[in-house]
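pipeline stage [seq->struct] | target=AlpA family transcriptional regulator | organism=Massilia arenae | residues=84
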Amino acid sequence: MNQQAIDTVIERRAPGSRADIRFIRLKEVMAICGKSRSSVYDAIKRGAFPRPVKLQGRSAAWIKSEVEQWAVQCIRTSRRDSKP
């Protein structure tokens, strides 16, 4: 992730510091979004879900606030689409 991408992630967050960033693993991602492992990766491939951050070697995690923002957007879209 380049510096501009990191700055964008930090700017999207609620007021706070870099210490507020929390990485979560796939198990917690699936618990938040209600998707299976394959559905998460399929959505990432389509650009419809936040990408994980490479931490070290094969290790990767998601930024919790990005997954939560995705969930909020899903709720907004669902509520908007269900109005008569």
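stage status: PASS
auto-comment: The first strand starts at residue 23 and ends at 24. The CA atoms of residues 49 and 70 lie 7 Å apart.
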